[in-house]
Amino acid sequence: MKSSRLLSILLLLQTRGRVTAAELAAELEVSVRTVYRDAESLAAAGVPLYGDAGHSGGYQLLDGYRTRLTGLAAGEAEALFLTSMPGPAAELGLGRALSTAQLKLRAALPAELRAQADRMRLRFHLDAPGWYAEHEETPHLARVADAVWRGRVVEVRYRRWKAPHEVDRRLAPYGLVLKAGRWYLVAGTAPGTAGTAAPPPYTYRVDQILAVHETDEECALPDGFELAAHWRRTQAEFHERLHPEEAEVRVSARAATRLTGVQARALAATGTPDPELPGWTRAVLPIESQEHAEAQFLELGTEAEVLAPPALRRRIGAAAAATAARYGAAPAGGPDGTG
User: Fold this and answer.
1) Per-residue pLDDT tens digits for 242-251
2) Is 86 exposed, middle or buried (0-12, 13-18, 19+ CB in 10 A)?
3) How many angstroms separate the most distant Cα atoms in the chain?
4) In this predicted model, what pLDDT tens digit does every residue of 7-27 receive, in sequence order?
5) What does the alpha-carbon distance between residue 183 and residue 87 come to, in Å, rounded to a whole number?
6) In a 10 Å sphere around its CB, with 0-12 CB exposed, 13-18 middle and 19+ buried, how is residue 298 labelled?
7) More confident residue, 235 or 7
8) What's the gap between Cα 120 and its chain centre?
9) Contact 61, 16 (CB under 8 A)
10) 74-82 helix and 111-123 helix, angle to the nearest 10 degrees
11) Among residues 221, 224, 193, which one has the least CA distance to residue 31?
12) What is the pLDDT of residues 160-174, one digit of tens each?
């Protein structure tokens, strides 16, 4: 939303001339401090923007400077249409606004760029959720998004996995993230909440919000907070917690192709040729738990062998022996049961 706000500031200055920070803040429904930061971002990006102090001061663009959509390169025009997401936009209550914006953008483009943008729109479609993901209702998404945009504290009733399962929270919303078709709210504890001392932001599933009330209390982003960078750190920390243990294994070339994610990367980084089995690779792989690893490596069958830790090796050996005992010898008359 910051990029949209920066463009709005640029267009306001372009159409109105000199505008004070207070007027920009009122127009965009943000704090004056946010306007100051946005003005610094525009200047850093090369926009010839300057400000005058005093009662009659304000921000102004250098005479003659204008931004034009006709300055878009072909790839940039195509990218704008490729990144549009009508589904999520509709969930946020912005479906009509997105369609209107695309129509205006298309009308403003030169004929050549318009044809390329149309080709991109017709030949590429973004569908973020996985194949087996069920659609989850998020009835409070629009209200949460409004609070994020307006910078307002919200009071929510939230359902979590541990007891007590329903809790009340006062949150300072920092941003919304769409991950694999599911919306997440990144928020801090609102000022004034008892027993809090500015803890780090926490992540909430929007579909688990049972009720939401937007207050008139303003909240600002913490100094230096950047949503995308915060989400990347959160993802990295999640994956570290997800695989707290390790297992030394050797795998065949066929089994190696079935490893994915962090295990595939670990195999590529630490794998060495196995000295006993030509064509096999030995490596130390991260695992979630011994129970999870048991099921995973049993699924690979004879194409993988766990060497350590000993407890995991014994678990897999016992499970394999029990499986062999259950199936027993082949029926009399031949391996396929025929006479």
Assistant:
1) 888 999 999 9
2) middle
3) 103
4) 778 777 776 778 888 888 888
5) 12
6) middle
7) 235
8) 24
9) no
10) 40
11) 221
12) 988 899 999 999 999
